[in-house]
Amino acid sequence: MQYRKLGNSGMYVSSIALGNWATHGETVDQDVATACVRKALDLGITTFDTADAYAGTKAETMLGEALKGVRREGIEVMTKAFFPTGTGKNDRGLSRKHVMESINGSLRRLQTDYVDVYQAHRYDYETPLEETMGAFADIVRAGKAHYIGVSEWTVAEIRAGAALAAELGIQFVSSQPQYNMLWRVIEPEVVPVCEELRITQVCWSPLAQGVLSGKYGASAVPAGSRFAADDGGLKTEHKFMQPEVLERVERLKPIAADLGVPLATLAVAWVLANPNVSAAIVGASRPEQLDDTVKAADLALGQETLDRIDGVLGDVVQRDPAKVESFLTRV
């Protein structure tokens, strides 16, 4: 395992982080969740990412149970607030009311006194940024979080947030975007600005929700998988589940084979090859799934390999910076 500095902080994170979106509380029970967390720890993963809204708050509860008894100083826990956690008008967003209530709920569910990084899960267009950042600053000063971060913010939003964080004397250290071989929308604008501001990326979906594991094909869909239709065919409404995309992904397998690794390892290593990336967040519904993804921490990709990947994927790669998800949240 590699360990990399997070943003402008002195804290290290494991280059592979375990996330529990779409697993804990949704597809796996507590016993399996605990087994996955313990496997992660055995493999050198020390960084764990979750959010209050995952599985209707159950994901945080399950992570807290799974980490029970683990030396708190030896791990880094990241969580987020923004999406609904209840039915009330104030059970969402980044108002001071919701942020303050959310951090307390997260700490209770995670069974900890603090999180290492507290993140704005999206940008809130209905709340003044000054209100949100002021609440974040109070959370840091109260010792309930060490650092702050954001997820899927645009360049302008990151700049404004970083300026306020500096004024308030707190450290804005991380951005959590979707980033993988197929989805590179942060490269034109977000990454350069984050490099300037000394903010690093903690990337979600490095496997493009399983597509870059190579398990999906235009005519072969694993039964019970998230993109399997009732008739056994492929659900094609998702942006990655298109025949032309799957055909290009299939052509990546010889590149992985030449390196002697599974495609999933190659995909995660590709994300880690970006010097602005501190960690890639992987999921697991079975402990053994982590064996392949963790190998990526020690796989350095040369320029020839990176060029081969680009040549294979060609125009199926999405690079449009307007696709950063904050734009979608605003609609």
UniProtKB/TrEMBL annotation:
SUPFAM superfamilies: NAD(P)-linked oxidoreductase. This is Aldo/keto reductase. InterPro entries: K_chnl_volt-dep_bsu_KCNAB-rel, NAD(P)_OxRdtase_dom_sf, NADP_OxRdtase_dom. Residues 16-312 form the NADP-dependent oxidoreductase domain. The keyword Ribosomal protein does not apply. Pfam families: Aldo_ket_red (PF00248). GO terms for cellular component: cytosol. Belongs to the shaker potassium channel beta subunit family. One of its GO terms (molecular function) is oxidoreductase activity. It comes from Pseudarthrobacter psychrotolerans. Keywords: NADP, Oxidoreductase. It comes from the Bacteria.
